[in-house]
UniProtKB/TrEMBL annotation:
Residue runs in coiled coils: none
One Pfam family per UniProt: 2-Hacid_dh_C
GO molecular function: glyoxylate reductase (NADPH) activity; hydroxypyruvate reductase [NAD(P)H] activity; NAD binding
Gene behind the chain: ghrB
Identification of the protein by name: Glyoxylate/hydroxypyruvate reductase B
CDD domains in alphabetical order: 2-Hacid_dh_7
Amino acid sequence: MSTAQVWLPIRPESIDGLPAELEYVHWDAEPEFPADPADCVFYVAPYMKKAAVKTQPLALMTNLKVLQTLTAGVDQFLPALPSLPPGVRLCNARGVHEASTAELALTLILASLRGIPEFVRRQDRHEWQGGFHPALADKTVAIVGYGAIGSAVEDRLAGFECARVLRFARSSRATPRGPVHSIDRIGDLLPEADVVVLVTPLTPETKGLAGAEFLARMKDGALLVNVARGPVVDTKALLAEVESGRLRAALDVTDPEPLPPGHPLWDAPGVLVSPHVGGPTSAFLPRAKRLLADQLQRFAAGEPLRFVVAES
Ligand SMILES: NC(=O)C1=CN([C@@H]2O[C@H](COP(=O)(O)OP(=O)(O)OC[C@H]3O[C@@H](n4cnc5c(N)ncnc54)[C@H](OP(=O)(O)O)[C@@H]3O)[C@@H](O)[C@H]2O)C=CC1
Ligand SMILES: O=C(O)C(=O)CO
């Protein structure tokens, strides 16, 4: 090993405050490696490049100390951990995506309830046709996964005069806003919710969480919003509910993803699909750069890193 390098998918000269004592290699996920992967001690994974996750040279990074993601979710990185040297810290991008993803959750709720997709289709046909639509005011919203993004969703619901917000996480706790319920109580409380927002990580416990039984407990006419990961919802069970007209859905993430042409979710009644755009917004790059500068200053100074979510 010759030098201790940091491999970045963002040009290092565009990031303020990088410590001078480290060497930076700009890595934009082209198949050819820009330097020797054995020299890399701090690897920042490319953002939203699925092919790059497959071609990333992690297995060759024999001196790696830190794998920093630019995503909040780390489900796509966990399978790589066993092949890394022992003690590599996996850090996620907490603080980067909360605002954008919570904002999208609200956008999807409002667009679905107020019939915006149908208005866009009618505008294309120059067709003036109104009608009554559900409002968010006076509705009960359940947030399933009351973490950084889940609580940011509640922040953004504050002005909408909802009747109630029901909060769920792995374990129950009290907050100044009210109780967070254990997920074990979801079956009892789901029938009270008009809107259910899924914002958990994808884990073995949450895979298929919104399956046939969960969906059957939802109120007639309720809206399911998924900004978590596609496999948190059982697509087949959801299709049965939306095709019968009993439930509606707004999905930023799908299973499979990307949703292939011809998939029944595209044309399912009452389903609004956005192509996994919760995180990638104008807020991403400045926040990601701040996170990287902070993490690398800590790394260079030998201080504890932030947002360590796993270790190899
Ligand atoms: N659509 C998009 O573009 C984006 C999607 N995401 C997705 O959102 C997810 C959540 O992000 P973030 O809020 O930052 O994560 P956090 O870790 O801050 O919060 C996750 C929450 O989910 C809860 N949770 C975990 N397992 C379960 C379970 N089995 N049942 C119920 N609740 C559970 C946790 O409970 P507890 O508090 O008890 O630990 C916690 O409250 C990410 O992992 C990612 O998959 C993130 C960014 C953008
Ligand atoms: O941060 C995440 O987990 C995403 O899904 C990408 O925006």
